[in-house]
Design brief:
Layout (H helix, E strand, L loop, with lengths): L1 H20 L2 E3 L6 H8 L3 H7 L12 E3 L32 E3 L6 H8 L3 H7 L2 H5 L6 E3 L17 E5 L6 H7 L4 H7 L12 E5 L20 E5 L6 H8 L3 H7 L12 E5 L4 E2 L20 E7 L11 H10 L1 H22 L4 E7 L9 H7 L7 E3 L4 H11 L6 E3 L12 E3 L4 H14 L3 E6 L4 H10 L4 E4 L8 H5 L7 E7 L3 H14 L4 E5 L14 H6 L3 E4 L7 H14 L5 H17 L13 E2 L4 E2 L1 E4 L4 E3 L3 E5 L5 E3 L2
Parallel strand pairs: 10-11, 10-12, 12-13, 13-14, 14-23, 15-16, 15-17, 17-18
Antiparallel strand pairs: 1-2, 3-4, 5-6, 7-8, 9-22, 19-24, 20-21, 22-23, 24-25
Keywords: Signal
Organism: Flavobacterium fontis
Pfam families: LysM
Length: 645
Amino acid sequence: MKGIFWGWVLGILCSVSLNAQNRTHKVVAGETVVSLAQKYQVTPYDLYKVNPEAKNGLKPAMVLVLPPNAVVPKTKPTPAVVANKPNATVARTPVPATHTVLAKETVFSISKKYGLPTGALEALNPQLKTNGLQTGMVLVLKKGVPTPKPMPAPSTTEHTHVVQAQETKYGIATRYGISVAELEAQNPTIVDSLPVGAVLKIKKSTSKPATTVAEPIKPKPVETLAYTVQNGETVFSLSRQFGLSEAALIRLNPELKDGLKEGMVLQVPMQVSFAKNRTDSGVKDLAQSANRQKRRELVLFLPFNAAKIQNDTVTGVVERLKKDKFLNMTLDFYSGALMAIDSARTLGLNVNVRIFDSQESRQTTAALDLLKQEDFSQVDAVIGPFYQINVEKVAAALEAQKIPVISPLSRDEGKSYSNLLQSTPLPDATKAAMLDYLQAKNGNIIAVVSPKKQSMRQYLRDYYEGVKLVGVADNGSVVADSIKKHFVKDRMNYVILATEKTGAVMTTTASMVAAQKDFKVQLVILEANETLDYEEIPIARLTKLKLMYPSVTRENDSPTAEQFDFAYRKKNKVFPNTYAIRGFDVTFDTLMRISQENGFLGTLEVATEHLENRFDYARKVSGGYANTGVYILYYDEDLQLKQAN
């Protein structure tokens, strides 16, 4: 009966999703694959994947299918157009000769304000390409206007101050040595509020304003775990094992200066506490070594929350599917898992799979009751529940039976259990993978770090001592020469961008492009950076610098991936999304591992790879295992996303 019910729900889901995915775009003159990728927040690869004909070029009136993950911009209702009389004229605001940049303004917003193309604005103001946009900068808006000379420094009695985000009246008054009342008296417009970008005139009779120094954010103390030294281990092997420099390991454990002894208890940072002895990073196909004779059993705890749905009408279910993102995610994962089960049986694996409704919220789950009601004595592995706190409860309940419990989606690091496996790489693991790759390539590593990212600065100082740090001013500016002075010849210069400041991004990328004639340079980010999505950051510049970043998934256009896409779409009438592919990869990997002679836990020295995910488990010092399978991806100059590792 439950199977019929969920088949009905999936049928409705497919019809709803099909309507959502039959979205198209009609090409107009001047549009390119890159501009459309930016418009719909996808990659050029995504568009090429569903529109192979686009590789031959776009033509006006061509109709493109939008990828499933495309974000269609919301359009405002078009106001009614009133026909102008033949002699009517439209008054336009005259474009001034210059513009003084205010806080939060960007090249794009200024261009839009005055109706100038960004290229024209940059041509009139070449300093934008070298120094980026900075608050207080005076821009030329018309040809023939001489470049404004810097304003003379104000006298010691009067200062101009542009209000920045998160500043307060008290903070500004204190900076200039006056009271809040005096500040308001000199600037009556701020009595009721203090708007960002407001230009204040401040008079004071004595000393110069104090230099703005961003109050450093005190880094949190390094959290550590105890590790007992084993026979045969050395300081060098331990530093390799934990991804630390020898100096960093000794700094945490000063007693190492007197030598390392078996049984010694060391403090190891929790962030890098993976004990990984295997040096072979290659992946292995486990299909050849699977034991097809012995019966294996897998349990999936998936949060269908059927009790909320089964009393709904068809219309009610459709409406719920439109709004309930968690249910959609569950059904997508489920559909991918079903494909994995079919694939495993096609390969002749002898597996029995039981799927239960975990009926979970952020704090509760029915999985614990199911553990008591159902027989788990023959279970070889459990996938789920989804929420980390719930999967930890299941792992705790099954730890004594040594049944592996796989957390399928969560990137949260909570409690550790010897049988708990985190299948999604944690954020610290992705950063470490990227930095380890740069070091393995013998790269010269430079990091541009903004004041707000003190934790990143501290992380680099603690664990990657060779990284050269470049600071970003409070207003988002960075001096191009402060980056270039660190470049070296005959080695790749990797520049890590760890700033949300548009000006710093513009300056850094522009200086890197300018340096390409003399140095080998490549742009790197360690985590998602929304600033790179802004329209004033040309995608051509990012591809020219071959932007590289760590990712838990890869782009896969292999014949196997294409066959999966075809089979999935044939069965479900929609393209597989991220959660469907994740459902396939996690389930198929688990089925492969439990089908080995030594079971799941006997395969953890082996790395595997499926459609979009790599599984390379490392033992956590605190207990359990975490997936360290991270891809290093980069954009090539042909706009294709490629894999570096």
